[in-house]
Amino acid sequence: MKKITSIKTRITIWYTSLMFVLIVVVLSLVGGLSYQLSIDSVEKDVILQVTQVTEKLSKRQPGVFEIVESKEEFKNVSIYAIDGKYLVGQYNYDVVNVPFVEGIPRRESLDGKEYIVYDTRTPSPSGMRGGFWVRGVESVNSTMLLGRSAIIIMLILIPLILLLTALGGYYITKRAFRPVNNIVKTANDISRQKDLTRRIEITPDAKEDELHHLSITLNKMLDKIENLIKQEKQFTSDASHELRTPISVILAQGEYLLDIAKDEKEKELAQTIVDKSKQVSKLVSRLLLLARIDQNRQKFNKEKVDLGVLIDIAIDSMKELASQKGILLFSDVAEGTIVDADESLILSAITNLISNGIKYSNESGSVSVSATKLGDRTEIVVADNGVGIAKEHIDKIWTRFYRVDDVRNDEYGSSGLGLSMAKSIIKLHGGTITVKSTPGKGTEFRIVL
Questions:
Q1: Do both 263 and 347 map to the same domain?
Q2: Residues 307, 436: one domain?
């Protein structure tokens, strides 16, 4: 079972549970206390009525029996002879046989009914022996019924109270966590759109609470990250520009040395200088291209491009590299497959993917390039049957200078920029590029324009 991860939901459950416990405890205490106070009130009423009758009897008032019969306040009092014989008052058949106990109010349960019974003894008038028993009796069934009704009402109200508490609490929690949702949304937008200029929105009337300070702190952190990345891109651009001239000089000098070399040793050294200079020059060119794309300074000349012709050019440029490993290159493009694109940039992206396929392919393998028109979209697929890419590297291959150690090396001048450059070019065209790979079987790059 999946655990609940929403903080709002967990807080709501916790305080609703706590509220449930508190409501049950409080209502139980209040209900119990109210019930006991009602019983105590009945006891006091019975004792008071018995006491009043007893006082009148003790004063030997001649009409006391008539008072008990007629007075409303004495409706729960009866007078018995000392032997238990009923004389006058409220005759109650249920408790007439209950033994007399002087001075102790008590509860008697008879035939499913509850009573408060209180007895007291008073001396008899002159000429009589033994005195009288004065008994007060009052039913507590109505009080118990009221208690049961209160319990039923409580059982009905508790779920309603909890429901209102949960809904109200969730609403309040949701409002309280609105800044958090705003932070999450902004972070997702930055991650999805790669737009570091986005900031967490802070309204002028926002309360200066912990989340407010967190939003300000995160915005400051984003400012620093954006500045650092800008500085890195600017450094890449500046360094690439600065390197172009000395690299060109080194390459020219290397080619000159190659021309005037007197023996094989000198030719080998000069050739190494030329090869490495070309490799570095290519790297600098890629860095400059990426820097221009990052800074939105790359010239973008969109025109009608025939993919069949373009892919043939890309394959022709890679034939020499492919022949070194005995790799066959294939193309499958329907005639008249036209796209709106920058010809040189798309050519560079496809060439890099073919080069990547050649480097990854086994000896005597193959790399195929196909293009298909699907409505208003065009799909370009570059596939090889090489070593493939392990799952843990799939998301990292687009990172600049990232190379899979056990596959990529300097044998073919790999710099780790080809795929990153290809993705930047496709993104510049408003398209997407994805990869699907199975280790040991091959890799497929799919461009959608």
A1: no
A2: yes
Positions in the chain whose pLDDT score sits under 70: 1-5, 59-74, 91-94, 124-130, 144-147, 205-206, 405-415
| Residue where a domain terminates, one of 103, 134, 167 | 167
Could you tell me the two tokens for 378?
């065009």
SS3 371: strand
Cα–Cα nearest to 309, from 346, 282, 353: 346
Q: Report the side by side order of strands in the sheet with 132-139.
A: 86-89, 77-81, 132-139, 113-122, 106-110
Tell whether 102 and 126 lie within a shared domain.
yes
pLDDT per position as a tens digit, 185-205: 888 887 777 777 788 777 776
Angstrom distance (rounded) from CA 246 to CA 252: 10
Residues 86, 131: one domain?
A: yes
Query: Torsion-angle region of residue 226: left (phi > 0), alpha (psi -120 to 50) or beta?
Result: alpha
Both 272 and 364 in one domain: the answer is no
For the whole prediction, is pTM greater than 0.70?
A: no
Distance CA(135)–CA(147), nearest Å, equals 26
